[in-house]
């Protein structure tokens, strides 16, 4: 009896997982199907999942009406710069907090943890004021006054608030603590300095966690909307894909523009989807290793 019950349990578990996976994938499949619908097909009742008139024209219209080339370039530049900066600063900060002994280390670590407790929305206005009064930018003088927009007119303003991640430093620090001190002491006895310890011993062991952090940062920054929309309100040329696609929602006829928006969203998520598929095994390994620690 117990053996038969155990043999039936996996099929039940697989069925639950399959149904849950289908429910989560259903909105994406509906978005993909809607991107091929013709004008006036979206939103009609009764609702039909598959398009009546299959068309590729929505993807061409998305490039024309949304200027996806410029939006895509902005997204790539901002996301690549932020991801690279977070990986470098998190690895170096994590190493310093995990393996170096200096006065105030624990206070700094607690301060970093405290930054993770603040809702990001609380920092929007202070960050915007800092960008607006950035010295010697956008016509500002040395004290950040008398200018015309300050740093908000530059694409760098999209990156600055995200170049350092408290979560990234915390994640790398927690993983690096597990590296045996004996290994580092042996290297020091052989004459290795701190930079060589960091580069030749610590970094090679942090590959899965670094890829996990990079993937989380990449996805989060690629989809970032609120801060970018705030900056883009002063300079529309700084819009990225999420903000630019949302702008099309202001058109009068949503039944005609929604399939184009769906096509734009499909194009915008392809880099994220491809990146995740290639790095999935490293991501899972990094999560497992972090969970074990």
From TrEMBL:
It comes from the Bacteria. Its main location: membrane. The keyword Cell membrane applies. Gene3D superfamilies: MetI-like. Residues 72-278 form the ABC transmembrane type-1 domain. GO terms for cellular component: plasma membrane. GO terms for biological process: transmembrane transport. It is a multi-pass membrane protein. Keywords: Cell membrane, Membrane, Transmembrane, Transmembrane helix, Transport. Belongs to the binding-protein-dependent transport system permease family. This is Sugar ABC transporter permease.
């Amino acid at each position: 009896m117990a053996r038969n019950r155990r043999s039936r349990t996996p099929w039940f578990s697989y069925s639950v997982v399959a149904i849950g996976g289908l429910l989560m994938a259903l909105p994406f499949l509906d978005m993909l199907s809607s991107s091929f619908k013709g004008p006036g097909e979206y939103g009609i009742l009764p609702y039909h999942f598959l398009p009546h008139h299959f068309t590729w024209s929505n993807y061409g219209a998305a490039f024309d009406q949304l200027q996806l080339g410029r939006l895509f370039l902005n997204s790539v530049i901002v996301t690549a710069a932020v991801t690279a900066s977070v990986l470098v600063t998190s690895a170096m900060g994590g190493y310093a907090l995990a393996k170096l002994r200096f006065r105030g280390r624990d206070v700094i670590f607690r301060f970093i943890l405290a930054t993770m407790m603040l809702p990001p929305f609380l920092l929007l206005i202070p960050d915007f004021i800092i960008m607006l009064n950035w010295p010697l930018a956008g016509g500002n003088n040395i004290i950040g006054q008398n200018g015309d927009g300050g740093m908000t007119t530059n694409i760098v303003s999209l990156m600055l608030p995200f170049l350092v991640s408290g979560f990234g430093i915390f994640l790398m620090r927690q993983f690096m603590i597990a590296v045996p001190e004996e290994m580092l002491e042996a290297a020091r006895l052989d004459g290795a300095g701190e930079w060589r310890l960091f580069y030749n011993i610590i970094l090679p062991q942090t590959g899965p966690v670094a890829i996990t952090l990079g993937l989380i940062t990449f996805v989060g920054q690629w989809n970032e909307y609120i801060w970018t929309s705030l900056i883009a309100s002063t300079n529309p040329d700084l819009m990225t894909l999420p903000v630019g696609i949302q702008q099309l929602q202001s058109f009068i006829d949503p039944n005609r523009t929604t399939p184009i928006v769906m096509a734009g969203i499909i194009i915008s998520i392809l880099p994220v989807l491809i990146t995740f598929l290639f790095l999935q095994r490293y991501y899972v390994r990094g999560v497992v290793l972090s969970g074990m620690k």
